[in-house]
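Recap from last week: sequence in, structure out.
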Amino acid sequence: MAHYKYLIVGNSAGGIGAVEAIREVDSQGSLAIVSDEPYSAYSRPAISEFLMGERGFGDRMYYRDPEFYDRHRVEQHLGARVARLDLESREAVLENGDRLGWERLLLATGGVPITPRMDGLELQGVHRFTTIDHARNIDAALQQGAKRVVVVGGGLIGCSLTSALVQRGGVEVVMVELLDRVLAAVMDATASALVEARLRELGVRVVTGHSVASILPAASDASRVGSVALNSGEEVPCDLVGVAVGVAPRLELVRETPIQVNRGIVVDHHMETTVPGVFACGDVAEAYDFIYDSHRVVAIWPNAYIGGRIAGLNMAGGHHEYDGCTAMNSFSYFDMALASAGLFDPGADDPVQTITVSGDGVYKKVVLRDGWLVGFLLQGDIDQAGVLFRLMRDRVPVADFQDRLLEDGFGLVSLPRPLRDAWLSEGVGPDGSLTGGLAAK
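Predicted structure tokens:
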């Protein structure tokens, strides 16, 4: 049995962040990563570009260069699935029977695609869209002649898949979203309507307020997809179904263990779970959200990396605290740039102040509570996103200049001089992003 000082389960942003942090403190301790995917770490957000044909699976998709693991003295167990954790003996038991022992463990297992209940999921032509292999399978189906696609889900993953299909061309796309609008988790009703209008301009049929009740076989081949039946009774012909509803924390390894779980794995401000020596980060963990002042699952790439760094520093003997995160999403699908963060769509009873501007293809919104910025949404022009997020994260009182937050050109130079100087001394880029410190790598 192999035994390591540090064992990381998961080989994406959180795991890589932990590796880099550990090696900053401990250059010699034995370190291993185990992942059920057979690849070096790659950028999952880039699988849409892969499907478009804009990226091959090579250096442009790798999250770190191919020599990263050797340079950081990381033993890789790729294409190996962990079947269970033995917390008492501190061992990860692989499906092939091998055991990997650890002194300190990081669970960076990410999320698993949500699959709605519907008949026909076993048919050929049903695909998910969260990994490079999923993208490859869809690419192969398109090359083999699939021309009509139903995308189940109008959230970020559904829009990512739809964008790739539209850019690729030659495919009829129908998007089916259970809620009454697309991107409801990351946009307000106004921004969602703008996206839906753009989708229709591009020839995508958008069906909201309905679900796919079942996937039906083709008349010519009962093993393959032929259509979907909506809960309205309508039947939509298709050759391919992309199930892109979202992801849920991947929790199978911690169920029936002493590790506390709510929606995700519960961690403290050091990213340590309720079992000493076991840490968690990224899409699988419930970490502190500074806007909601509670622990929540925030499934975004930067959060995974920073959480992994904090975990890695503490696994190596440090006492670093995670300052917290909040949801921030941005994308440029359908020739539209959009970004949102924090409490961007408050309820009618929430005691907040909202400022919006719109016109000429631009829609901007900030949400304030008691003189603090607690959320924003930008469509068409997202240049202010970095500064707005930093104001929100650092709890900077903005009452004295709140009316300027959405002005064209608002940025670092627009801030009060003491604040601007303080940020510059810490290493802050013109957009308000960190250029030094934990988030820099």
